[in-house]
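Repro:
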Amino acid sequence: MTTRTKTTQHFQNEKLSSHQVKSTFLSVYPLAQKTFKLNEQQIVVPKGAFISIPLEHISSAHTSTFILVENFETFIDLKKANFDFDSFPADTLVAYRGDKDFGIVMSQIKQALPTCHLVGFFDCDPQGFSMARASKCDSILAPNTDLATFKRLGQTDLFDRQYATLKDDGVFGKVYELMIEGQCGVVQEALIQHQVPLHLAPIRRP
């Protein structure tokens, strides 16, 4: 990176930015701090904003944990979710990927930062679970709730439309079982809006 303006670009809203999120960039902001270290430089991120990092520089990010978010609005509003975010390390970064190569990009992050803990926050529907699995996440932020609440907030049409593409062998535990039993999917926005408690669920990979 030659200059800060070339390295990082701040946007309040992706739709208002001069370009969409590109496949060569990862959009991030620090979860708990105002700055984070990249290429031995302290990068300042204004409140409510995020920056775009070239993927080739991800290995130089000083972080022990990435939280990977599927939805852009949820990426911005993540800390409104009903979860104790203070339980994450102080150097945690929140990341968003919006293109179809999500799984490939997350694999690149895992290769660049092999000791980094990857946490995913996805929709609790077949497509979200498939994306979580492809992302190489170590764990996911999942609703800690009962079947009645899951069905009340869920969308049966979303489940029906996507279920045929899902291939799973039980790696997601209870939250996957709730989706199957309720035959519906719950989007991230609903989990935040209705303040459904979240917990960190490990992905049990074969």
